[in-house]
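Long-time lurker. I teach an intro course on protein structure, and each term I like to show students one example going from raw sequence to a predicted 3D structure in token notation. This year I'd like something fresh instead of my usual example. Would anyone be willing to generate the tokens for the chain below so I can use it in lecture? Attribution to the forum is fine with me.
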Amino acid sequence: MSLHWSLLLFIAIALVSSVAQAAVVEHTFNVGNFSISQLCQPPLIITAVNGQLPGPTIYAREGDTVVVHLVNTSPYSMTLHWHGVLQRGTPWADGPAMVTQCPVQPGGNYTYRFNVDGQEGTLWWHAHVSFHRATVYGALVIRPRGGAKAYPFPKPDKEHVVILGEWWNATVYDMERMAFLTGIPAPHAEAYTINGKPGDFYNCSAPNQTAKFEVRQNGTYLLRIINAGMNTPLFFKVAKHRLTVVGADACYTKPYKTDVVVVSPGQTVDALMVASAAVGRYYMAASPYDSAIPQGPPFSDTTATAILQYAGARRKTVRWRPPVLPRRPPVNDTATAHRFFSGMTALLRHGKPSAVPLAVDTHMYVTVGLGVSLCQPEQLLCNRSAPPVFSSSMNNASFVVPKNTSLLEAHFRREPAGVYTRDFPDTPPVVFDYTGDESDNATMQFTTKSTKVKTLRYNETVEMVLQNTRLIAKESHPMHIHGFNFFILAQGFGNYDKRRAERRFNLVDPQERNTIAVPTGGWAVIRFVADNPGMWYMHCHFDAHISLGLAMVLEVLDGPTPETSVPPPPADLPRCS
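-- Reply from a regular --
Happy to contribute to a lecture. Here you go:
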């Protein structure tokens, strides 16, 4: 055989092998009512997927196509969001209600179809309408195309998904409706959970309400940690064990050793754990981080636990010995939280330099925080004779989703009139001491409702300063951008000072994420390339704050080719009722 034909055969085999490695991962998610009893309460009817809490874990490999058929048998409108999936070419599958789609009505269905090209690590999925994500959520694990042997860290003996959540002894849909109608924030959770179970330290805890993970001594385990909680950042520890963080938000990091992981709602962390302790039983513990200064709204000052059980610990002398409990960080331990959030850097692979863009086209300075506003007409139980109600905003614009047409549909049809406006400001309308006492001024706290978006040209590089305010209270807001990862160049406390901050910019190996916990009473600088056409939601991942308006939308215009343009909507895209 000639060299020419040998080369062609080699290329053909390589192409076939590459194509064969990609697969279609298909699931049917039946969203319906599910009866569950926790904390010795009477059975509660919740909304769940396939009768599970958490819902099913989706396992895929980089490059696969994921297909999920949503069948809505619940009495509520429903959407699903694939948190952290970039959705390149599939913006109609992103999921936030009235941003990229109208909700799936009771009795309806919709098929989400998207690729996971160029992404590896731990992501997750959740409902993106009302407060349903309190019970409608699960993990999305994307392994390398070459399998576990292709990890850029020592191959673990086993992997465990660890999903942290919050639990209410109430119907969360009714709770959200009452909060909106009255203008009074919803109550805090009764408990935190690990894989849907609260653990041993709540009143009336039962053995079947504690998650268990079995390990073998000296084995290495990859913990895929997800904060699916609604409103609470959490500290996570394993008694007598240290962790090595190797990824965050499905982006690899340089190994970062720690005895505590901090995850804000929406974030994920991949951490290796060597089972190097004596054979026995040890608690995993998730406890709250309350960043608010002064003291914020009430929160559940409790601890969720799961049990890490060594093989061989079933012997009677060990089985009845209480598991070892880790020392819990103080609830207001901002120093530990900041050290963790700011300590990670990106793992640069295959000798490639960082992809952080160096030239910036658009600079934005965006304040994020709480405030007050007048009762809206739809808030029928709002006390209009009392002072203004709680609200929240970005650059003093408090976001409201449209009622009859999704933003993406209006964008695709080029019919924004009456749906949204393109005047989201690049800077705050008023400059003041954002983190000082001046924030007590009632005029500074007042905001108005709108549906403003920021329009970006295709391939535009954006640098955004996220500035926390002390309006009402300083607080660490977990800011999430749909459709993009971003580089975190720097973060700190107080008001952003450009001259000082730029000296600290990490342009070599900055961590890459899709959700950043902006330091309480502080700032963060992020940078990304707007190379994904569509309408992309940017919001605080405290659900209590989304409903108050702490959100906006990035409208990314089409590029020069069909492949860089928003495609037509799928035939089964839900219609607004």
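Some talking points for your students: Residues 372 and 390 are 5 Å apart (CA to CA). The domain at 153-348 is CATH 2.60.40.420 (Immunoglobulin-like).
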